[in-house]
Amino acid sequence: MIQVIPFDVGEYAGMSGTIILLTLPDNSTTVYQEGGGIGEIFDDRETVTRRLRDYDRMKACALSPEESAALIEAAMENFKPCEPSQI
Questions:
Q1: How many Å apart are CA 37 and CA 49, to the nearest integer?
Q2: Are the beta carbons of 3 and 59 closer than 8 angstroms?
C-alpha cells in the first residue's frame, strides 16, 4: 500500500530516510532505518517503540491510498524529463 505525505504537511519524523518495520515469527518487532548512506537495525524496546510512534504519525499525515494514487497520477501527467547532460 502506498501512501504519500504531501509537501504542504511540512517536516515529519522519518523524513530523512527509510524505516522498515519487521515483525518476526515470535511477534517481536525489529526496525531497519536507513538514511544518509547508513543503515542500522534496532531491536531494543525503547527505540522500536519510538520508531513505531513515528510511523503512526507519518501514516496520520499521509493521504489515503486513493488520494495518493491520484496525486501520483497528476504528477506523472505534469512530468517533463530533464535534458540529458552534455558531459
A1: 24
A2: yes
Give kind and range of the element (H or E) at residue 44: none
Residue with cell 509537501: 7
What integer pLDDT is reported at residue 86 of this predicted model? 78
Q: Kindly report the pTM of this predicted structure.
A: 0.70
Neighbours of 51 (CB within 10 A): 21
- Report d(CA 60, CA 70) in Å as an integer: 18
The predicted-structure confidence for 9-31, as pLDDT tens digits, reads as follows 887 666 678 889 999 999 999 99
Question: Is the model more confident about 82 or about 62?
Answer: 62
- If we measure between CA atoms, which residue out of 64, 52, 61, 63 comes closest to residue 20? 52
